[in-house]
From TrEMBL:
This is AtzE family amidohydrolase. PANTHER family: GLUTAMYL-TRNA(GLN) AMIDOTRANSFERASE, TRANSAMIDASE. InterPro entries: Amidase (IPR000120), Amidase_dom (IPR023631), AS_sf (IPR036928), Carboxybiuret_hydro_AtzE (IPR014087). Gene3D superfamilies: Amidase signature (AS) domain (3.90.1300.10). It comes from Methylophilus glucosoxydans. Residues 23-430 form the Amidase domain.
Length: 449
């Protein structure tokens, strides 16, 4: 095995007996030991467990048993997923003293039933509140395309591990963009499904109203197979489910045209490949994003109120002031924000009455240097960390499914485009992402610097 193989290729090779799951696992563990010091994507490597799981896959194959779809495929999870025997860190120093999890998170259990091999837990912004994975407790995660730059966040470790070829699949979470922003920064395919489509059981919560589980991969086929597995379909094949009707496509204009030249060029590239000419707008997107901020701050601050009172000094300095501010928000503001959420969802459903897939940038620019405080977009200076999510936050605000597809423009760092659908339309988005990959418009090669 080498880091360029995707999950389906690895599973097929193991199923055919051309390589053993143990050999694949040993090679992946050696790769992590050799390369991850440069990227800091892993916070814990579960080598003993991984070798045991791999041996079990090989024994099942030797007995002539039918192997499940991800048998022998290495993967890892954001460190807010429960892993039996380990404390669930959620990127926090405070959580290091917590009791170890007694059982795996439900999605980790689903991956194990599908035969996948867990290699460890991955770095993140503390309590998932950030877009750059500049974690003061566990160190920043570095972008494999340029280690001086951010891998995005809060699932930055999940993205960097896949981009560097350490594992072909990772699980993350997305509350306001934490799958789509790292997908854009690291040049990956990422899935944020419909709100509620995947179980959150055994995942450390951030904002109940917006929390989603999500997936990173280097191919749309891997995303599709993994999504099926996480929904409990262990007989899934590797082909994105076919959707009979040709989707009606449109580019999101107005608010979503604020990105820099590279972000807009990426959207134009995808639209040209798909022959998209229609432009539509969602109303009051800026207000929707503001409402999402209020709900995030209020729910996040309330969740951590006791910790803020008792252990304020132990919080990451990038996280503490935002959570503390959230504890002071008036209840009336929170309720008004939730009312706007319902209204904005209804407006989006009116757009989907005549359009199936909306196309928009995932981030306003490509990955920026670690430690940078501001960015300039079209002549406007703005804080970098919150505004990396300016195009993702209004979409997760109303729980719509999104596939992020990577676009590599000549001579530039990668950046992603969002394919946005109506609730429950993941299959249509995954098929469209697969089509773009087959056209070589969207690719995600392994990179190590």
């Amino acid at each position: 095995m080498d880091g360029s193989q995707n999950a389906i290729e690895i599973a097929n090779a193991i199923r055919l007996g051309t390589v053993s799951a143990l050999r694949v696992t040993e090679a992946a563990l050696a790769d992590i030991a050799r390369h991850d010091g440069r990227y800091n994507s892993f916070t814990t490597v579960t080598a003993g467990r991984a070798l045991q799981e791999a041996a079990a896959v090989d024994a099942a194959r030797d007995r002539g048993e039918r192997l499940p779809p991800l048998a022998g495929v290495p993967y890892a999870v954001k460190n807010l997923f429960d892993i039996a025997g380990l404390p669930t860190l959620a990127g926090a120093k405070i959580n290091q003293s917590h009791a170890p999890a007694s059982t795996d998170a439900q999605l980790v259990q689903a991956m194990q039933r599908a035969g996948a091999i867990l290699l460890g837990a991955l770095n993140m912004d503390e309590y998932a509140y950030g877009f750059t994975t500049e974690n003061h407790h566990f160190g920043p995660t570095r972008n494999p395309h340029d280690p001086t730059r951010s891998a995005g966040g809060s699932s930055g470790g999940s993205a960097a591990a896949v981009a560097a070829g350490l594992v072909p699949l990772t699980l993350g979470s997305d509350t306001n963009g934490s799958v789509r922003v790292p997908s854009s920064m690291c040049g990956l395919f990422g899935l944020k499904p419909t709100y509620g489509a995947l179980s959150l059981q055994g995942m450390f919560p951030f904002v109940h109203s917006f929390d989603h589980a999500g997936i990173f991969a280097r191919s749309a086929q891997d995303l599709s197979l993994c999504f099926d597995v996480l929904q409990g379909n262990t007989s899934a094949d590797s082909t994105p489910r076919l959707v009979s009707d040709t989707p009606r496509l449109a580019r999101l204009g107005g608010y979503f045209e604020q990105g820099d030249a590279q972000a807009q060029a990426a959207v134009a590239t995808v639209c040209k490949a798909l022959q998209v000419t229609q432009v539509v707008e969602l109303p009051e997107v800026a207000r929707a994003r503001s409402a999402a901020y209020l709900i995030t701050a209020s729910e996040g601050g309330n969740r951590h109120l006791t910790r803020l009172r008792m252990q304020a000094a132990d919080f990451d300095p990038l996280t503490r002031p935002r959570l503390a501010a959230g504890t002071t928000l008036p209840a009336a503001w929170y309720l008004q924000a939730q009312r706007l959420r319902r209204w904005f969802f209804e407006q989006a459903m009116q757009v989907f009455a005549s359009t199936d897939v909306l196309i928009a940038p995932a981030t306003p620019c490509c990955a920026q240097p670690l430690g940078q405080e501001d960015m300039v977009i079209n002549g406007n200076r703005m804080p970098l960390r919150p505004n990396m999510g300016m195009f993702t936050q209004p979409i997760s605000f109303i729980g719509l499914p999104v596939v992020a597809v990577p676009v590599h423009l000549p001579g530039q760092l990668p950046i992603a485009v969002q394919l946005i659908g109506a609730p429950g339309k993941e299959a249509q988005l995954l098929q469209l992402a697969h089509h773009l990959q087959s056209l070589s418009v969207c690719q995600s090669p392994v990179v190590r610097n």
